[in-house]
Amino acid sequence: MATIEDRGTSVRVCWRLGGTRDGARMSAPFKGSDPTAVRKLAEQAQKLVKAYQYQITRDEVLRIVLGVEEAPRTGDITLAQWVKIWYEDRKPAAPDVPGMDDIQADTLEKYMQILRCRVLPYLGHKFLRELTAEEDGEKVLKEWMRSLRKSRVKRTKSNPGGKPISANTVRAAHAVLHIVLGAAVPRFIPFNPVARQGNERKNRLGLPKAPPFEGMFLDVWEVERIQRHCDEQIADIWFVLVNTGLRLGELLALRVQDVTVEGREPEVRVQRALKAGGRIGLPKSLTSIRRVSVSTAVAEVLAVLCKGKRPGDLIFPCPGKKRTKGAEPTWNENNLYRRHWLPSVAAAMRCGAHPPPEPPKPARGRAGSCAMTRCRRAAAPGSCAAGPGCTTAATPTPRI
Questions:
Q1: pLDDT band at residue 302 under the 50/70/90 scheme
Q2: Nearest CA to 144 among 209, 206, 79?
Q3: How far apart are CA 58 and CA 74, in angstroms?
Q4: What contacts 185, CB < 8 A, 6 or more positions away?
Q5: With contact defined as beta carbons under 8 Å apart, do 338 and 371 qualify?
Q6: In this structure, are residues 137 and 130 in contact, taking their beta carbons and an 8 Å threshold?
Q7: What backbone torsions phi and psi does residue 12 show, to the nearest 5 degrees?
Q8: Do 13 and 62 contact (CB within 8 A), yes or no?
Q9: How far is it, in rounded angstroms, from Cα 320 to Cα 315?
């Protein structure tokens, strides 16, 4: 709450930034020879603070009430408090309208997850002014970077020490913090402390180098062999994916009205994508909204899948899932990956004449649910029961 306090010849309005008990303390003083006029200014400031729901600083109150230029920003707000304000400002106003928001809803939630796990536990209690102090601020940020690089993840009973965090995860945390602090300039801080300053060629905080990306490109025979061993529920999904180059989320959100399968130029119009949590929204970026020409073979497959469906129906609905009010029968990508894709890959990598033994029955849980274990065993050297010298298989083992 905002309170008015008499301080001798002056009156000041006091409140906590954000209206919470742990918010930064704010006070706006008013002085003058006329006590009645000073009191009216204080009451006006109190109403202003309440109208802004306590998300307003001392300098902003004085500028609005007195009409004076804003004093230099003090940064009297913690990083955790600023993240809350930043999150509310970035919430999509129209998540389904292209170009209305700079951050999509699912991307914003990923940013918040990174902030909650990698940033706020270390820096959430720090005032923004502490991060911009030249020597002390750099020391704090370097210590955060060192702590992050030393942290370990995926601790289990068999591996209690876990494994070191990846360089890409560290860089992702740095990138999100860069975005958040950049939005605080110049409102609370004069510059972004995690950005490169001046002519710096190297990040001064000790950011690790990202490992080079090593892509895997399948040969034609590998694609065909996977197609032969594909689960029948995802066979058409795999065929259209490898022959169009669509992202999986884009493919699973296709409707009958989004494809043209007749005529001389069949095409697919990408306008939607399946997001985390089963929500359907916009594709990854505005450039992802596009038209994709398809071959005659793909058009024939799509024509069969579209037959008998309404224009708004999904072409690739989840089997056994019915459409409900406000929700389409979309796939769960994790279930598709574990229950259908991994067993299909394992079957394609396994020697048909001498298959490796099944994994042992787990102590707990369902038997035969270890699709990941099967896939790893099939890919391991000597996965064929007859040994590496087996020549029975019709084709070599795919490099998946």
A1: very high
A2: 206
A3: 10
A4: 191, 192
A5: yes
A6: yes
A7: -130, 150
A8: no
A9: 14
The secondary structure of residue 52, as a DSSP letter, is T
193 and 202 Cβ atoms separated by less than 8 Å: no
Do the beta carbons of residue 372 and residue 342 sit within 8 Å? yes
What is the distance between the terminal CA atoms of the chain, rounded to a whole angstrom? 61
Distance CA 101, CA 254 (A): 23
Tokens of 370: 């270890």
Give me the helices (H) in 133-219, please.
Answer: 134-150, 167-183
- How far apart, in Å, are the Cα atoms of 273 and each of 96, 190, 325, 345? 11, 39, 19, 25
Beta bridge partners of 267: 260, 293
Instruction: Using the structure block, give the residue that is written with the tokens 């902030």.
Output: 115
DSSP letters along 319-334, please? Answer: TT---BTTB-----HH
pTM of the model: 0.67
Look at residue 71 in the predicted model and tell me its pLDDT: 44
Q: Find residue 11's DSSP bridge partners.
A: 6, 30
Strands 273-274, 267-270: pairing is unpaired
Q: What is the mean pLDDT of residues 92-108?
A: 71
Across all residues in the chain, what is the average pLDDT?
Answer: 81
Calpha distance 244→144 (Å, rounded): 44
Continuous H helices in the chain: 35-51, 58-66, 79-90, 105-114, 120-123, 128-132, 134-150, 167-183, 220-229, 235-244, 248-252, 296-306, 333-335, 342-349, 371-379
Angstrom distance (rounded) from CA 120 to CA 124: 4
At residue 375 the predicted structure's pLDDT band, cuts being 50, 70 and 90, is: low
Whether the pLDDT of residue 372 is over 70: the answer is: no
Strand residue runs (E) in the chain: 3-7, 10-16, 25-31, 152-153, 163-164, 259-260, 267-270, 273-274, 280-281, 290-293
Q: Using an 8 Å Cβ cutoff, are 239 and 298 in contact?
A: yes
Write out the DSSP string of 376-393. HHHHSTT-STT-TT---S
